[in-house]
Amino acid sequence: MTEDEFLTPLDNYLKVGLHIGTKFRTKYMEPFIYKVRSDGLAVLNVKKIDERIGLAARFLSQFEPKDILVVCRRENGWNAVKLFSKLTDINVIAGRYRPGLMTNSQLEDFKETKIILVADPWPDKNAVRDAFKIGIPIVACCDTNNEANYVDLIIPCNNKGKKSLGLLFFVLAKEYLKNRGLLKDESKIAIPLEEFTKE
């Protein structure tokens, strides 16, 4: 792929280590693994990461912001998902997802949702289970060690690093807005990448 075919410059992906996985590899993630380094860490295929972010953005953009829920239990992703929410108006839960939030209409903070995106299907497993129970699509950011039962669309990535999650949610927000016709000029995006990836 040439540089300008990527959703963000290739260098951005490499700088934040979005492609660096773990030493553990599951069968779900094998199709996305490019190689295993000499230190045992799996390396994800950047081209496939980029393709999947684009695919997820196109899929999400078929839904109104109020019908989407993003869940991120891992603290490293809180800043990124909150900024993602500011840009897109999509609901996010940064922190603990309360079981039953999508299934129990008696709860005062009950969320009626048509699709969810989780930052990691392991810590966000309660949200994944609830979404599966009500039969809505589940998009998940998955590292090489993730199981992906119940997941409808995998976005392969390093879902543990603060900067990698920042870049992922920035690109996803940008593409979501573009696909919905809300962003004509990328350089005019309200929140710059640096805000998403700062330490």
Description:
The protein has 199 residues and is an alpha/beta fold. 33% of the residues lie in helices and 15% in strands. The strands form two sheets. Strands 4-3-5-6-7 form a five-stranded parallel β-sheet. Strands 1-2 form a two-stranded antiparallel ribbon.
Secondary structure: elements and pairs:
Blueprint (H helix, E strand, L loop, with lengths): L9 H7 L16 E4 L5 E3 L1 H15 L7 E5 L5 H11 L2 E4 L20 E4 L6 H10 L3 E5 L10 E4 L5 H18 L13 H5 L2
Parallel strand pairs: 3-4, 3-5, 5-6, 6-7
Antiparallel strand pairs: 1-2
Q: What number of structural domains do the residues give?
A: 1
**Could you spell the SSE succession in H and E letters?**
HEEHEHEEHEEHH
- Beta-strand residue fraction: 5-15%
**How is the main sheet built?**
5 strands, parallel
Give a short summary of the structure.
The chain has 199 residues and is of the alpha/beta class.
Q: Which descriptors would you attach to this protein?
A:
Rossmann fold, 6 helices, 199 residues, two-stranded antiparallel ribbon, 7 strands, five-stranded parallel sheet, alpha/beta, globular
